[in-house]
User: What shape does this take?
Amino acid sequence: MNPMPPSNVTSDVRMKGFASRTTVDEAVAWIDAQLPNFSKLPTEEVSLLESRGLILAADVVSRVNVPGFDRSMMDGFALSATETYGATPYNPLPFKIVGTSFPGAPFSGTLFPGQTVCIMTGAPMPNGANAVLPVEKTERQGDSLLAMAEVSAGKHVGAVGEDVHRGSTLLSARRVLRPQDIGVLSSIGCNNAVVVRKPRVGILITGNELLPCGTAPKGYQITDANGPMLHALVKRDGGQPVMPGLVPDDRESLLAAMASMSESADILLVSGGSSVGQDDHAPQLVATHGLLAIHGIAMRPSSPAGMGLFNNRLVFLLPGNPVSCLCAYDFFAGRAIRALSGRSVDWPYLRVQAKLTRKLVSTVGRVDYARVKLIGNNAEPISISGASILTSTTSADGFVIVPANSEGYASETIIEVFLY
Assistant: This one.
């Protein structure tokens, strides 16, 4: 862990502004340096139906073959391949149909020379048969069959263990389970999966001007948007969000909420009160009762974001302005949550190339997060892009990251757009 905060963090961060700002790269490097200390989460057993997106805690070794029997891979007739040699439409070879094999209801006898069994896709192969002649290669008359083509041994037959071999490692530890993985686990008889527990993420929303989700804004109060947004983002990134409700905007209430939440959460998110105003308590509380490693980042929006340690938990201070909150989450908090949940730390957004319709201006020395709308293969920067205008992210199709060493992009530059 980083024992000392960077030089831009002071013992009293209120009402002094930022003497300097940490670069985005430095903030990301600090996060990555902390992650090994928080990566060993306990395991738990969950139902397969609830396991999508979770991390396997150990290798899964199959105790069975799948399939456990030879089976037909198409509708047709099971027979001995050598008896079809020489069969053509002009030289059909006769067989006697002695029964039928269905999935789950096989033909119980043994085939003798000149005999065949009508067989369905997925049905067990009868004794004495080693190939399936497709139905379209035959001509049937009652219990008599004319083979109109040859087949080789094993043709259209799924062998024992063709899908899964007993004793094979089916899935390896640390794998993020996908729907098809869950299907394979079920196919070998698993009902539960032993997985790494999701990282628990405590979401604390502070601000006396805020009303709870579902309440209509009134007077000088606004309805909380950050809480539900962060809840959805945490779930997207593989975390388990925990929200105790709005926290009053005073030191004692916020400190009590942080202390209580840190007892059960692996990561703390504090939204609101992250800047340097008189009522911005979060940075001072982290600095006093933990480690305020970073406060103030050279980026727009999200400049007042911060991070550190509180009660030996990673804590991220996210601005109250919704766009800044979203941006700081994706750059920093989301990275940590994705890492702990076994996902890639990279941005969880699809990317496309597009041509700028007009100049995109930035300031050298800071990273810019600019929202754009796609019109065909062109990207149009959103005109209204304030940090408090959350609808700028819903009217946009995605965003562009302008690096700190750039003054922006000229019109008609081909840029990379991250799609929301």
In short: The domain at 351-419 is CATH 2.40.340.10 (Beta-clip). Confidence is low (pLDDT under 50) at residues 1-7, 9-15.
